[in-house]
Amino acid sequence: MSEITSLTLTELVKNIKEKKISSEEATKNFIERGEKSKQLNSYITNDFSSALKNAKNFDQKPNFNLKLPGIPIAVKDLFCTSGVKTTAGSKILSNFVPTYESTVTQNIWNEGAILLGKLNCDEFAMGSSNETSFFGNVQSPIDKDLVPGGSSGGSAAALAANLTPITIGTDTGGSIRQPASFTGTVGLKPTYGSCSRYGIVAFASSLDQAGPMSKNVKDCALLHEIISTYDEKDSTSIDFKRNEYSKELTNNIKGKKIGIPKEYRVEGMPKEIEDLWVKGIEYIKDCGAKIFEISLPHTNYALPAYYIVAPAEASSNLARYDGVKYGFRSKGENLIDMYEKTRSEGFGSEVQRRIMIGTYVLSSGYYDAYYLKAQKVRKLIKNDFDEAYKKVDAILTPSTPNSAFKIGEKTNDPVSMYLNDIFTVPINLAGLPAISIPAGLDVKGYPLGLQIIGKAFDEQNILNIAYAMEEKIAFKNKITDWWIK
Amino acid sequence: MTKDNSEYLISRDNNIYEIVIGLEVHAQVTSNSKLFSASSTTFGAEPNTQVSLVDAAFPGMLPVINEFCVKQAIKTGIGLKAQINKKSVFDRKNYFYADLPQGYQISQFKYPIVGEGTVILDMPNGQKEVGIERLHLEQDAGKSIHDMDPQNTLVDLNRSGVALMEIVSKPDLRTPDEVSVYVKKLRSIMRYLGTCDGNMQEGSLRADVNVSVRIKGSDKLGTRCEIKNVNSIKFMQMAINYEANRQVDLIEEGKTINQETRLFDTKKNETRSMRSKEDAHDYRYFPDPDLLPLEVTDEFIEKLKADIPELPDDKKKRFIDKFKVSPYEATILVSDMETAKYFEEVVAKMGKNQDMKLAVNWIIGELFAVLNNKNLEISESPISAKNLAKLVNLIKNGTISGKIAKTIFELMIDGDKDPQIIVEEKGLKQESDPKALEALIDKIINDNREKAIEYKQGKEKLFGFFVGQAMKVSGGKANPQLINEILKKKL
Fold this sequence. Notes:
The complex is a heterodimer.
Chain A (H helix, E strand, L loop, with lengths): L8 H9 L5 H14 L6 E4 L1 H13 L11 E5 L26 H8 L3 E6 L33 H8 L6 E4 L6 H7 L2 E4 L20 E5 L2 H11 L29 E5 L9 H16 L3 E5 L7 H16 L17 H12 L2 H14 L5 H21 L5 E5 L15 H5 L6 H6 L3 E8 L5 E8 L4 H15 L12
Parallel strand pairs in A: 2-3, 7-8, 7-9
Antiparallel strand pairs in A: 1-3, 4-6, 5-6, 5-10, 9-11, 10-11
Chain B lengths: L1 E2 L4 E5 L2 E14 L38 H13 L7 E2 L2 E4 L9 E4 L9 E7 L2 E14 L3 E3 L8 E3 L6 E7 L6 H18 L11 E11 L9 E6 L2 H20 L7 E6 L4 E7 L9 E2 L6 E2 L2 H9 L5 H12 L3 H8 L2 H14 L5 H19 L10 H12 L5 H12 L5 H8 L7 H14 L1 H8 L5 H12 L6 H11 L1
Parallel strand pairs in B: 13-14
Antiparallel strand pairs in B: 1-2, 2-3, 3-11, 3-12, 4-17, 5-6, 5-16, 7-8, 8-11, 9-10, 12-13, 14-15
């Protein structure tokens, strides 16, 4: 048998159910590998001793009817976990221990999973390289000094490095799909309203969505069916009929109509991305699906609209971190002074930049020109997709306009950093589901991903397409364990 | 300054000014739990004991609308004869303050739940209509306490997130008296509906008062000042009076009025600038992305309409038509639902041979005086409607005189005693037997012969003396009408 930590979730569950591996054994293996992988800096907080205790408890009274029986899992540090520090990658929450549990994490514990720890991420999920975290950048297991992507960079790195069999991230503009693409893993951004936002530290409420990250599509389907539940505690949660995605997963996509949006052929896109896309189209044809050229005419406006809407909401969502009630507080002469010092010292520069942009676009006199206009653009982008979906069942695009870049390469150029999200952002604006699957390697051997975008609530369809393509692509990640001496 | 029932004008040299007033009333919704959380709303609890994670704005916490509060707002809208908006939107009003945990207040800005409506004021010289601009739902903030600790401000979040209705009037009010009647009328309507208890001491009802002045006859609005957070009707009137005169003085001196927010200092009886328009907060309103637009169906609204009790205006009309009480009396009787209920019970218990006028006088005269003295609500009246009806009937059928009735009334207060029993026990029945009274009067005239002669000689004042004697001798029981008749005959 191969190493426990390199098993897929599905294989691990099977082994535990067949009592070939105990929860304790699995947990120990992941902990040991975690201990040896500190250089990756993927954990902000590990909860190893509790995890081991919980694994032993599980083994004493195992319940194999659960979907995640005794499976140790590390999650992004944006999910509030009861009794375990939750920082959102920020100094301002560096001492914050919630007394409550997010709905999404509660759903996985209810299925028998065990918390390994909290994974690094960009501060308040604002970033595309995991370099804005107060707790330091994350090393990609793909190569030394390479970014794992962001904001769910710790999650992607931990998953690709086999520190957790599966993980959950959050995606506001690409924060699951881009790091999945950079690390050769699978990441799903579900339909807005599919997963509850209750207990997830908010970045931009109308865009935030939690989702599964996994080593393959089947694992992704399984985790998605666990975390996607209707939740009365989130007013934007939608009560629709959810599938048993893993059970209904099929590689039969014959006759499916797949759209190729011409607007995603952006200027300056590397040839290898273009080639990857063409290869993806071929794979889809091989599976018996049909290809259609489509147009999403407002794609160009998605990124600017996103960088108005998301900071606007963030500027308001982050107002609660004022040093009054919890979290970091700096000493001040008076209330205003205390606010200013707390927030200047507590937030990093990218977060401050977005708070300022957001405050600006909402101020009187600018609201109509920026926020309102961005909302109109958002509607047009959604209309583009609605039109396209009259003709096709799903859309295929590259996940990112480039492969992973070096740490520090883009830190002084926020616009170039923002451009990383160019293919992922429109999907959040439209509230649609999209999955990124690894599809190949570039010349440097870095993974590249393809994105399949679905209709709202049609996760099953894009999972099926991804499942069929995955078989054809037969992607193998080249990870050398360079960080383990 | 002239002041009569209808006008409240400020005169300076050759100019006469009128005041234009608009009110933003903040009424706390009567509900067990808060607008977006399940925390209790009970007044006066230990600080920070009624605070949920949502109210304290913990990371990842989300608001969920309380349907009951929505119903209460719609009911109030129906009571204000207002447009109910089937779709309304919650916005965030962003500002930093220590007692505002989210850093924003959830309110309704562009699309309120209730639109234009009307309130009718009963003024001494007739009715006046005041337009309602809108009613919207919003969260209350917490409370900052500055005087309990020498170094720190303390914060109590019990009130944080409690549902408020902000009721905005059009600038239709012209006098402090109209403001008083308007606020009382709003309160009365909301109490009838059970949507706000109107308790100003507990802060359930408070108002921002917008005041401007203009030359009488002008139809242009002057620059207004907003006096924030005034929590009693008396203070509202004082603040308006001060502020209007201040503005008139500025105009007369050739100065301009700055649009600004002012505070009313109740100790010094003056308003003071809080912040000017230039310093006004930019609240950066935008739709709250945590909440979907609030949509209600016609069916939902119709169901609530069916639940609306008879409101003061309709009740007043019915009282005038059915019970023939005067508009003035009717206004008093319907001012709160419990008084109206008490009155109707008295009417019912009086039976067929009713003296409505007498009943009304006893309620708004003697009974109100007792309630006032004892600081009781009419629902806690020491005298039941049934027994008050009996007392009125005893007067009406001549069993007792009005004077004796007052004595009996005093005795009834203690333990809600039946007046009939008091009459019997104390032998207070009125003497109405003409023969007995004639004998009594004969004796009095006999005993006071000299005075009787003086009377006959023209000293008419002495008539009162004889009436007094008759009442004294009879122990107050003599029927005064008969005494008068007999005395006139005998003297």
